[in-house]
Structures are given as structure tokens and as C-alpha cells.
Amino acid sequence: MLETHMLSIAIWLPIVGGVVVAATGGDANAARARGLALLFALLTFAATIPLYLKFNAATHAMQFVEDYAWVDAFRIRYRLGIDGISLLLILLTSFSTVLVVISAWRVIERRVAQYFAAFLFMEGVMIGVFCALDAILFYVFWEAMLVPMFLIIGLWGGSNRVYATIKFFLYTFVGSVLMLVALIYLYFQAGSFDILAFQAQPLGLHAQTLIFLAFLAAFAVKVPMWPVHTWLPDAHVEAPTGGSVILAAIMLKMGGYGFLRFSLPITPDASHELAGVMVALSLVAVVYIGLVALVQEDMKKLIAYSSIAHMGFVTLGFFIFNVQGLEGGIMQMISHGFVSGALFLCVGVLYDRLHSRNIKDYGGVAAPMPMFAAFMMFFALANSGLPGTSGFVGEFLVILGAFQVSVWYALAAGTTLVFGAAYTLWMYKRVIFGAIKNPDVAALVDIDAREWLFLAALALAVLLMGLWPKPFLDVIHTSVEHLLTQANASKL
Amino acid sequence: MSEMPNILPALPEIAVAVMACVILIVDLYVSPRSRNVSYVLAQLTLVLAAALTIFGASTSGVFFSGMFIADPLSVLLKLAIYLLTLFVFAYSREYLAQRDLLRGEYFVLALFGVVGMMVMVSASHFLTLYLGLELLSLSLYAMVAFQRDSATATEAAMKYFVLGAMASGMLLYGMSMLYGVTGSLELAVVGQRVAAIGANDVVLIFGLVFVVVGVAFKVGLVPFHMWIPDVYHGAPTAVTLYIGTIPEIASFALVIRLLVGGLEGLSASWSDMLIVLAVLSIGLGNVIAIAQTNIKRMLAYSAISHMGFFLLGILNASPAGYSSALFYILTYTVMSLGAFGIVIALSRQGFEAERLDDFKGLNQRSPWYAFLMLLLMISLAGVPPTVGFYAKLLVIQSLVGTGLVWLAVLAVIFTVVGAYYYLRIVKLMYFDEPEETAAIGGGKDIRFLISINALLLLGIMPWIGNVIDWCDAAIRSLH
Asked: Locate the NADH:quinone oxidoreductase/Mrp antiporter transmembrane domain: which residues (chain B) (predicted)?
């Protein structure tokens, strides 16, 4: 049971945990809700580690496969399995959830049980997205995540939260329903909802193009790519810290994952055909959104725009069709999960103290909070892609891959090293250095043990990935090579 | 004529009709304090009918000189009708008692309506179909006007009656033309003659148009939907609950028996008409629902859009489509039952929870009801992992399977429009502060039943596969 159902356990353990936590009821039992939430988050993290240990990196085949009949009449099956790409994203999910639970420990005081229950439920369905090998199962997990996120932003978010959360929901919903029609069309071509059968199914160019566009509607909104990115700054700014972390660290990755699992292998010819458009959109995100980030006055908004720019790098890596680009894109996704999560947590630390996210309300934070300033310095440098941090690995590989295709791609992408450093470090300078701006800043207290714990855990991850990326690259290498052969083989 | 016909196939109908008369008489003699007797008798009637239906499920065929058909489809639909009515009675009892409406008439009229629907479900003849429809309609007119002192209810009943009578006229006129061309009232024979005559006969098409208009009136499709919002809004919630759920099953029976059972030879013609009706209903229903401030009106427009969606399954004229439409109707009635059930549970003596604002801050007043309503709303919106999603999935699947991809895209886009107003309820319940703090009504039994009702919608459950299989089997038995 434990051996053969490892993926099911990773999916359902947090969902059951969410129900248990929700059952603790009102805020009188908040302490119990927190304890149970942490317990289930840790258990889930522990349940995903064996996946890494037992993973066979030598094969590109799906591993830990589970396959059961579900709705026989329409050949919908409960089919799970992972390759190297999904493995890393699953680990990122379970790791981030633990940090989110810890980060919300003291900050969330109203409707504590519902808050943690929503996050645990979301963890389960996000892991489900990365495990699903049946298109309908995938879609169910993909959409099931919307409702808890809708509630998280709307219930615990900032002042304009209702507008932001409805925008978030409708944007993502409109993209996904078009994908649903494409999935059903593929079902009639392939005779089942098996994603691997979709990948093997020959398709004409016209059909491929339409399917590619339908997938694009879903994934581009999630990533988000320019010009459908406008929901993200709103959602990020209004979401509570934990919500921002999950949004940035995992939810955006689901879009990237979608490109890898669906667009490239199912519609390879259309992907090549439209690669120019995709690269152009990605470069617009990298350059233009990088400039937009420069002028932001709200720290969260700045990091949100920085996320869009970094995700532009990811999609650029995917659509240049070489190993460096793909591996770089995937590494960038993982790294961005750590770094942007960490930066949102840093902003959260400041916000908990002064209840402001405006850069101009801060200045000279380094004096009262030296420890915090050191951590934030580290993450700011990682965000600008300093060698030795995880941010460097992905950007370096993608630029390397881009060079093989066109020098101009590489040059345009390379500007991110300048802009990224500019907007991140300039923000850092205005917030942390300089004279102490006002008495509130002077009265700040440095981070406590709890905050130290989650920042240190992320710093360790960023450093590990930056200095020794081999364990990460080894796991994905075979899967990426297989994906590349699929993406380069014509289906016509 | 000397021989007594075998009445066994119609035993459930007879039993319910007899019991309705018995309740009417018993109710005269019980004191107002012990009105629960009528309630219990009505519930027992439904259980009895269910037992008889299950007992007789093995007999199938056409009886009473081609008037009455017993097949797996009729068994499935009848059982659904009993179950829904059971829930409707249980939800309504307290509401009716608080408003001094707990009288035998409610149950008697509702049971006569049930008989009408049972006859429709088993109809294989224009006459029986019309008879059942009129029995149902007359019961509904009276039920809407049931709260005598309410001006809105009376107005709604008037509108319903006038428009309903006109629709019946249209339907009859169409039927008479079809009779004129085919020379038969029996649906199976009409089907054969239509196939022989061909689909290009002018009178036949005229007859079809009138029949479709009549059906569209009864089902409530745009542009024949005007009565729906007024009736849903004006009737007492207990009656809205009834109208908003069970007759939808009868609507399905009406469509499937008439258009598929009798006039499938004309499917190329009616499917074009239904495309127009369906697209208009989904579009207009979803858009106008956004502007509503009364939840009963909002759910009325939502019902219009859902009827349009169900029609998408019918209009592609394939067995997969009919089966998806059947599954859609069954799940929709469960969702609608739950949604009106919550409206009933939240209302109390002298207070109707019908304004959208009455849902403000429900999460703070009762997290459980808020959660159930959340489930119902996202299921109506068609968001996974609820059953509303699977219903939409099957319909869209049948559309794509018959090559109507553009219609599928249109349908999913309007689904997103629809998601907005369902989400607004979620927003009111979770993000806003409550306007009042009075305790939530609803006894333990209602709470329990609504919980079952709403949790049924969690689509992870394996039962979905079973229900889809039943729907498939029932539709297969038609051909």
C-alpha cells in the first residue's frame, strides 16, 4: 500500500489534513488548527521525499504509476505517474507549503482553521496536477485549485481583495475552459483521455495549431505571459503573504509545466510553427516587464512584475528547442519558486510590522533589523541572478541555449541581468539602506526564531541549487532529452 | 372491450393518484395541530410509489393500446421524481408551518403534479403526453397562487396561467398538424410515417415548429422564458423549490418523447431550431442573471441558462448527446434542489432570505451552510471537482463528438460569464460582513438532508460513473 500508492498518498494526505484542520472549527481552537496544519504539511513533505530517493533517473518512462478505472463509460481513468520534471515540482510544492504554514503561524488570527485548511487542500490538488496522466483528472485538479485560492485572496487579502480575486478567478477560468474543449477534441482523436496517448497521436497542422492556441489560452494566463499578465500584480498585491508565496512559487509553474506536458509533445509542429511568436512574447515579458518593474512603488507589485519577467525567461527557454533551453527553463522555474517565495516572505516580514508595502515608507531598515537585511540582501542578489545562487543556473543555461539559435535572442534575454539587478537592488537600497526614515522604522524589531527558520531554509535551498545543481539536473536530464525528441519529431 | 386491461404497468400512477385523494379527505378531518399527518402520508405515498416502480421495473413494453410505455428510461425518471419530491416535502414542511401554509392542499397538488409528470414520463401517445402535461401545469398554477394573500404570488400565477395556456394551445395545434399528416397520434407510428413521408413536407415542418414552440414555453427557453423569473420570484419559496426542480425532469421527458421518440426523422430540422433556442437561453440567461438582486430571480435566470445547456445535449441528435442531457438534468435538479433548500433553511418566521444581501457574511454566521452553498454554487458554475463539471463535460463531449466544436466553444465561454454571478454569492458569503446576526433557522433534519444533498455534488465520488452508466442504459433502451 505505502509502496504502490506513493503518489496517491502525496495527493490525498494534505486534502484529508485540510478536512481535519477545518473540523477544528472556530478560532477558539486556533492553536490546535495550527499544530495539525504543520503536522500534515510536514507529513506530506516527508511523504514526497521517498519519491526522490527511489526515483530512477536513467529512464524517461513514467514512474510510480497508478492506474484505476474511474468513469468507464468515457474512459476517464485515475492515472498517476511522474517523470523528472514533475518530481522537482512536487518537491517544490510540499517544501513551500511547510514554509507557508510556518510563516502564517502568528500572522493569521482570524478564521485560522479555514486558512490552513485551504492551503492544505491546495497543496493536494497542486501535487495532483503534477502527477495526473489522465487529461480529465489533470483538468479536475487544475481547476479545483481555483476555489481555495479565490477564498484565500478574498478572505485574508488586502483592501482591494474582492476585485483582485474575482479577476484572478475569471482570467484563469476563461483560459482553462478553452483547454477543456481541446482535451475533448483530442479524446476523439486518440480514443482515450490518456495524456501519453495524446502525445503519440498524429495530428494535422491545422488541428495542431488550434489545439496549441487553446492550450496557450490556459497556460499563458497561468504563467503569466505578456499581455495576459494583468491579473498577477493585482492578485499578488492583495493576497496574504502565504497566498503570494504559493501563487509565485507553484501556481505559475503549473503554466510552465503545461507547456512541457501538453503543448510541446502533443502539438510539436504547431509549436515550431508558432515558436517565433512565443519567443517574441517571452522577450517582451523579459524586457518590457523588467522596465515596468523598475518604476513600481509597491514592493509586492515590484516582485510580481519581476516574476513575470523571470517566467518570460522560462517560456523563452522552452521555445528554442534545445537541451540547454529546456533544462534552463525548468531550473529557472524551481529557482524562481525559492527566490520569489523568499522575497514575498521578506515583504511579509516587513508588512507584519509596519502594515505598509510602499517603498517610500521604509528606509534604513538595516539598522534596526541587521539579520533581516542580510537575508534579504542574499535573496535580492539571487533574484538578480548572481553566480553561486540558484537564479544564475537557469538564466545562464537559457542564454546559452538562446545563443545557439540567434545572437539577438541571447542579447535581448541578457538584458534581464541588467534590469533584474537594477530593479531588485534599487528597491533593496531604498528600503534597507540610507538614513532611518521615520520613528516607526527605528522601532522595528529584528526577525525572531520562526522567521529565521523559514528564511534560512530557503537561503539554504537557493545556495545549494546555485553551488551544486547536479542533483537537480540529473533528475530531469533523461526526461528533458525525451521531451526534446518528442518536440522535434514531426507529427504530420 | 369486455376484457379488463392489465393495469399493472400503471400501478404507481394509480397509487399516487388514489393516495392524493385520500390525503385530501384525511386532511379535512385532522385538526390544524396535527397537520403533520398529511405530510407523513404524502411521504409514505412516495415511498410506496417507489417500491411499486422498482417492483415493476422488469416489465417493459407498450400498454393500453399504444398509450403508455414502460421502459428503463421511465423507471429512472420516475425514481428521480419520487426522490426529489421527497426532499422537496422535507425541506418545505417547516417553512410552510411557519407561514400557516401547512395544509393538505400543498401535498395534494404536489402529488397530482407528480402523477402528471409520471404520465408524461411514460407517454407514448400525443394524448397521454398532453394529459400529463396539463395535469402538471394545472397543479403548478394552483400551487403558485397557493399563498392567497400574497399579491406577487397571485400576479405570478396569473402570468403563468395565461402564458401556459397559450403554450398548451401551440403544442396542441402542432400536434393536430402532425396528426393531419401522419394520421396517427401514437408516437411510434408517427415516427414511422415521418420517416416514410420524408423531412420536406411543409405541413410536417409547420407542425414541428408549433410543437417546438410549445415545448420551449414549457421548458422555459429564450425567447419563451418570460414567465420563469416572475413565477420563481412570486411563488412562496416552498413552491419555487418544487417548480425549480422536479418539472425539469418532466421537461426532459417531454423533449425526449416528442422530439426523439416521435419526430427523430425530422432531427435535422429541429436541431437547427434548438441551436437558436439553446444559444439564446445560455447567453441571455447568464447575462441577465448578473443584474439580479434577488436570489430566486437569479436562480430563475440560471435555470434558463441551464435548460439551454441541457438542450445542447439533445440538439446534436446522438445517443451520447441524449444520455449527456439526461445526466445533466439529473445533476441540475440536485443542484437546484440544494440551492433553493438553502434559501428555505435560511428563512424563518416573517423573514424570507431572498435578497442576495441576506447571504452577506454567512460564513461568520454558519460556516457549514456557507460551505454547502459554496459547493452548490461552484457546481452550478461547473467548476471541478463538483458534479456540475462532469455534467457540462459530457454535454460538451457529445458536441465535439458530433463536430459542433464552435457550439462547444460558445458554451464554455458563457460558462465563464455564468461563473461570475455564482461567484458573487460566494463573495457575499465569505468576504462581506453580515447585515444581521439573528440565528440561522432550519431544524436538524433539514440541515442533515441539505448536507447530504450538497455533498452528493462532490464529484470525486465513484457514483458518478454509475449514474452515467444508468443514463446510457436508459437511452439505449429507446432505440
From this structure: 123-416
pTM of the model: 0.89
Q: What is the ipTM of this complex?
A: 0.83
Given a cut of 50, whether residue A5 has pLDDT beyond it is yes
CB contact under 8 A, B383 and A147: yes
The DSSP string of B205-226 is HHHHHHHHHHHHHHHT-TTS-T
A160 to chain B: which residues are within 8 Å by CB? none
Please report, for chain B, how many H helices and E strands are present, in that order: 20, 2
CA distance A220 to B324: 31
- Mutation target vs A (from B393, B404, B460, B463; most A CBs, 10 A cutoff): B393
- Report the residue from A71, A74, A144 with minimal CB separation from B384: A144
Which one-letter DSSP state was computed for residue B436?
Answer: -
Select from B89, B465, B456, B11 the least CA-distant residue to B246: B89
B409, B419, B465 ranked by CB distance to A181: nearest: B409
Instruction: Decide if A7 contacts A66 (C-beta within 8 A).
Output: yes
Q: Touching check for A74 and chain B: CB below 8 Å?
A: yes
Domain ranges of chain B: 8-477
Beta bridge partners of B63: B68
Mention every residue, 6+ apart, whose C-beta is less than 8 A from residue B192: none
Taking only the tens place, the pLDDT of each residue in B398-450 is 998 888 889 999 998 898 888 889 988 988 888 888 877 777 766 777 888 88
Of A375, A235, A392, residue with least CA distance to A310? A392
Task: Tabulate helix, strand, coil % of chain A (nearest 5).
Answer: 75, 5, 20
Please list, in sequence order, all residues whose beta carbon lies within 8 angstroms of the beta carbon of residue B291, skipping any fewer than 6 positions away. Answer: none
Note the pLDDT tens digit of each residue in A348-376. 888 888 888 888 888 888 888 888 888 99
* Enclosing H/E stretch for A79: strand A76-82
The tens digit of pLDDT for each residue in B347-370 reads: 877 777 888 888 888 888 888 888
Choose from A180, A193, A206, A213 for mutation: most chain B CBs within 10 A: A180
**Closest listed residue to residue A399, CA positions, set A447, A331, A453:** A331
Tell me whether the omega of the peptide bond preceding residue B32 falls within 30 degrees of 0, making it cis: no
Nearest to B313 by CA among B269, B254, B255, B263: B255
